[in-house]
């Protein structure tokens, strides 16, 4: 993906936003996605304020530096830009960051209990989820953003307690699919635990093998491409 042009990156961000809304990841105009510029890693594209994830366009995507300052674009910047800038500073392996407010993920973040591998999607996050507990408020300062980055650590997902989640990965495909799969894992665990005592998890070796199998880059591409095709079919049917 790092070989993509700026226009191609923006186009993929646009479809990511539509996919996320179709998958129930929207919360009014809240939530934001960013992507590091391949030709200048000190800059990143980011969704603007006051519009939904499904309203991203080539024209309203902002270009922002690692201090959180807008260097190109006239739209309003999200106040939580520091989630993105601070993670980009400390995670050179990350090119895409997404913050959303998915229902079950928020509910799970407030339980104080670890995510168990009670479903296949959960295997992606076995012993690999951060938790940020400093505040329920918006992440509006560099210090708070740095706190989120620290809580994320080497992982792909950090829960912001009672607030939402942040997903970080090398590609848009992976970020979107991991976010959807995390919500699914949280939902399944909440349903199972509400139903009563859960059976023991499978052996660690079995879980690690599944984690390996479903975390290959091509798996994220296949699933993201499917969701984009479905979003395009829906648009065509509606139009």
Question: In a few lines, what is going on in this structure?
Answer:
The protein contains seven helices and eight strands; from the N terminus they run αββββαβαβαββααα. The chain has 239 residues and is an alpha+beta fold. Helix 2 crosses helix 4 and helix 5 packs across helix 7 (217-238).
| Distance, first to last CA | 30 Å
Largest sheet strand order:
4-3-2-1-5-8-7-6
How many DSSP E strands? 8
Shape: globular
Whole-number mean pLDDT: 97
Radius of gyration: 17 Å
Q: H/E element string?
A: HEEEEHEHEHEEHHH
- Given as residue ranges, the uncertain stretches (5+ residues, pLDDT < 50) are none
Q: What's the helical proportion of residues?
A: 40-55%
In DSSP terms (H or I, runs of 4 or more residues), the helix count works out at: 7
Global structural class: alpha+beta
Could you give a short account of the major beta sheet?
8 strands, mixed
Beta percentage is 15-25%
Secondary-structure blueprint:
Elements: H1 6-22, E1 32-37, E2 40-46, E3 62-65, E4 70-72, H2 81-90, E5 96-100, H3 103-109, E6 129-132, H4 142-152, E7 157-160, E8 164-169, H5 172-195, H6 204-214, H7 217-238
What does this structure look like?
- It is a single chain.
- The chain is α+β, with helices and mostly antiparallel strands.
- The chain is 43% helix and 16% strand.
- Helix 1 packs across helix 7.
- The model has no long low-confidence stretch (mean pLDDT 97).
